[in-house]
Amino acid sequence: MREPPDNLTEDALRACLRDRYGLSVADLTFLPLGYDSSAWVYRAQATDGATYFLKVRVSIENEAGLVVPRYLRDHGLAHVVAPLPATDGALWTDAGDYVLILYPFVEGSAAWGREMTPQQWRDYGALMRQVHDIPVAPDLARVLRRDRFVPDGAAAIRRVDAHISTRHFDDPAEQRLARFWQERRGVIRILLERAEDLGRRLAAIAPPLVLCHADIHTANVLLDTDGRVWFVDWDETLLAPRERDLMFVVGGISSTLVSPREEAYFFEGYGSIKVDPLALAYYRYCWAVGDIGAFGEQVFFRPDLGPDTRREGAEMLMGLFETGEIVDIALGSEIPAG
């Protein structure tokens, strides 16, 4: 999010970190990062000089998003950023209407928009393969969601589509996006129908499932100051076909994020694998549907958000339809006959 929550003060955050984590904070800085309209992040500098990454969420919708990275870290995957336990051992804590998660601060920056070296692409592939190959213990399996092959965002798209059909809008962001949506309505409906059809076909096959990060585009790949690759932000993790993660590299979700040569470097680290074109197509369509639905709801159904955030949501949604972006990539996918 680009703006901090308006009903959670820095004093409240400092008090929670003191009471729940035993942490005395000298400096707290809001970081305008990410596009999740239900999450905010801060850099916390403790009085002892240690630095932490603080994430604020509206709620914990996927407990596995905290348990999985902690599990991976405890089972030898050193380059996974995992939450730190509070004084009572919990991986998150309440703060009024929000929940807080505290992480170690890894100095570096996201790989998104940066030119990764061939070795970093190999390391990206190798770390993803480690995640996919790790055995899932019964206790971990109990908190993990299993992909049901129903596209996220389908309900949101139908809600937004019905909303703009019956209303006049005065807000500039709403006006602009409603006009764009009406112009692209046919394409949006094709995306939704194909995503749901591909999901039904994939569910009928019942493909093998592995542990997936599920959101491992390069914005969630961190390059530290020594050039090492880390995986962050496990909020969407679940058991799914490996194509759920490989989608981010095999063609990517934007042509600007990965080239054929970089894809080849990635698989030098990941290892040889046959990618299922049906699963790959499904997850591309799912990503397009999910982003369209999420940004649509951000603009039309989140009055709690500031005008800059809602305007940005409209711009992000419209950008999905540009040449080389996810809508273009999904529509160009190979779909096996069936």
UniProtKB/TrEMBL annotation:
A Pfam family of the record is APH
Domain Aminoglycoside phosphotransferase: where? Answer: 37-271
Q: Does the keyword Transferase apply?
A: yes
Q: Which UniProt keywords apply?
A: Transferase
Q: Which Gene3D superfamilies match?
A: 1.20.58.840, Phosphorylase Kinase, domain 1, Transferase(Phosphotransferase) domain 1
Keyword Transferase on entry: yes
Q: What domain of life?
A: Bacteria
| Molecular functions per Gene Ontology | transferase activity
* Name this polypeptide is given: Aminoglycoside phosphotransferase
